Amino acid sequence: MSRSRPLWWAAGLIAVVGAGLAGLAFGPVPLPPAAVATEILNLIPGVRVESGLNPREAAVLLQLRLPRVVLGLLVGAMLALAGGAYQGVFRNPLADPYLLGVAAGAGLSATAVIALDGPRTLLPAAAFAGALAAIGLTYLLGAAGGGDRSPAALILSGVAVAAFLQAGQVWLMQRHVEDLREIYSWLLGRLATGGWGDVRLLLPYVLVTAVVVLAHRRELDVLTVGDEEAAGLGLHPQRSRLILVAAASLGTAAAVSVSGLIGFVGVIVPHAVRLLVGASYRAILPLSMLFGAAFLALADLIARTAAAPAEVPIGVVTALFGAPFFALVLRTNRRVAL
Questions:
Q1: Does domain 2-332 have CATH number 1.10.3470.10?
Q2: pTM score over 0.90
């Protein structure tokens, strides 16, 4: 399997380029893919090639589609990387980036801003703060029973915190039914309003999370054998788990703050990569970033073209792929080494 990994690296890079180009070329205003690629080359300093696009088409490409596609690639890469890290930390192929309450915390905060008529510019910051607060509550609750913060304790704590925060969210939604359409639009995920400001906001978190998680991917391979065995091999399981969960949660919170709650990416992509390249997180994590980016870019393309000129929430599209995928996971998780 290791001999074929360079081929999967090439496939991942091709998938990212292909998905990005498709996202830029297709939509309510179709653009020639060759002209799109040429116009993108013109963004390189010192390069100037005639693309054949008129000013209106160039504006659609550079001002509307390009930031949206770049944002989709970043969010997809981030959610897939975080999902892979969570699956390694908790030794569970069904773990996803929302396991410890990130989605519930972000959802409650975003719902509060919308329902209480707060400035919509506060949505990303509120969602980010709510997601981090939920993670903090989960860790505090996980330590309340003795401070071991084992994977099982953290998972149970995450379930409890998510249930509590979701109850508050439902209460707000019932009290402000006139805002339900806008609330659900955020909860189901959207990249329609994405711009370069969101890209600049998300990019530093993507870089930090990717550097930290990828630097610890060998430790994830050790953690899969269990805490006692990992400690015997010289690893500090609690510290490694804290670093990985903190980094993955930070990146997830940042992604959610600009895209809303897009589900299943963190489950589908890392597990599919595991089936293709084997159980080593040295390959799973970086390849998950590539295929996660391509997956979400294509999902966004489907979301904005399937019912054009209307848009399908991107969370609905990912769920259409994710729900059947759970059946595959349930059939294979006993046969795949974690």
A1: yes
A2: yes
